[in-house]
Amino acid sequence: MTRVLAALVVLVAPAAPADLTCDPQAIDRESYRLTTEAQALNVTAERYSWWDAFKLGKHEAALADLNDTAAFLATRALEIDPGNLMGHALLARQLVVLGDGEAAEKAWAATLDAGGAVVWTATLYDVDARTYFALAFDRASLRIYRFGQLAGAYKKGRGGIPEFPGKDNVGFWASLAGCLPAGVTPEARVPWADVREIKAGNWVLWFDLARPVAVASDDGKRKSLGQIKVNLHGRTGTLEVYKPVGADEPAIRGRGPAGYQDLIRRTLVKFVDPEKRIALPPVKPGAGW
Asked: For the chain: N or C, fewer Cβ within 10 A?
């Protein structure tokens, strides 16, 4: 289903005009709403009930619905106003999430050529596994923002995990759509010249750095990182039932989306490392990260 949607997105999304903008005064009102408020409603929509905890694969299906809808909304926004930079940035991210890196490349080029960024919310496990960050990728660097820098004061949900703000927090949703506030200094900025290697695992990417960067979470945890281990949100693993050797009863095991991690890094380096200086070791999925 997601591959079909990705193909349809490419067919209907218009070509990027010469000038793309984040300026809400210059973007068609409905197009702007589709890349901010409508995206907020999609992400924060209730997709679970208590009974879903007993349904194998429910989380995977719900996330697929979220991602399909996000891509559809971005495509519709660009049909209305091809100059909306946020539509291109959202498609750049969502087409990778949907597994179609080739289709995503046009949106990546349009976004980065216009000075925008492709943004993911993320978990930095070596800093604070209970808070979120936002990672922004542009032509010059990788930028790390605290969730609270973009969202302002926010609520915490189950397990202390941040809750996404509502549709009224337009600035937050514009930030996740590649239009980050110029007045907010990121927690860390890593020029691509300082990235030596990007490894891909089951659940995370590792960015090996030439020099460490200091990163603090919203909860005050701070770490100096020579390697950024990050889960870029968007895809989850799959659960499968199998029969262990020598066991009488079946068991359940999870498999991480290693192909998703690999697709992110390979798409990314096409635009930020034309000299092919950044090493990409082979993916070797196994147990663990």
From this structure: N
Count of Cβ atoms closer than 10 Å to residue 283 Cβ = 14
With H, G, I as helix, E, B as strand and everything else as coil, classify residue 102: helix
187 half-sphere exposure, CB direction, 13 A CA radius: 27
- From its phi and psi, is residue 276 left (phi > 0), alpha (psi between -120 and 50) or beta? left
One-letter amino acid of 82: P
Q: What angle do CA 61, 64, 68 make, to 5 degrees?
A: 145
pLDDT in tens, 40-87: 999 999 876 544 444 444 567 888 899 999 999 999 999 999 999 999
Alpha-carbon span 268 to 70, nearest angstrom: 20
Helix or strand run (H / E) with residue 180? none
pTM equals: 0.88
